[in-house]
Amino acid sequence: MLVIALTGSIAMGKTTVARRFLEQGIPVFDADAEVHKLYAGEAAAPIEAAFPGTTAKGEVDRAALAAALEENPGALARLEAIVHPLVRARRRAFLREHASAETEMAVLEIPLLFETGGEKDADVTIVVTAPAEVQRSRLMARRGMNEARADLLMANQMPDAEKRARADYVVETDRPPEETAAEIDKLIESFRGREGEAFSIE
Fold this sequence. Notes:
The chain is an alpha/beta fold and 202 residues long. The protein is 50% helix and 14% strand. It has nine helices and seven strands, in the order βαβααββααββαααβα. The strands form two sheets. It has a five-stranded parallel beta sheet, sandwiched between helices. A two-stranded antiparallel ribbon has the order 3-4. α1 (14-23) crosses α9 (177-191) and α2 (31-39) crosses α5. The relative contact order is 0.22. The mean pLDDT is 92.
């Protein structure tokens, strides 16, 4: 099974690109979605222990957690130490399931791919990108976003130029959606029949 890692900084268009893979029948592991599930489950208790007052009714209050992180930038590393191992375990279960089913290829959508060394678990890396002004505009349009939170989110990610330099493929999203979709379709066709070596069931 060919393992494709999809990444890119916040508000670059990863969700749109991931959706195209899904539309073409390629399974996608969405790391952000898994974090949401963890916040509503097994990650809530350890997060409450590390950041008192950031959960309610057994679930993480994302606004309260964001406020806690803004007050202490160093706290992000503590949060990641709790969440990242749990996400990695779910990612491996996803890959095991699809490798067992002899799926031809699978996508790992991981925002912090290079930051966490996740590229070693993939056969191919794709970085989604857009100009800085487009990224900033998309980010500020999100509900509940403010300048301070946007600055924090962007400061804790590897520069876009470095991600593009490390990627096997770069997909630009500051263009009509159908053009981006067509590029993804071409990539999928180029991947067909290619043997993957990054993941082994054993």
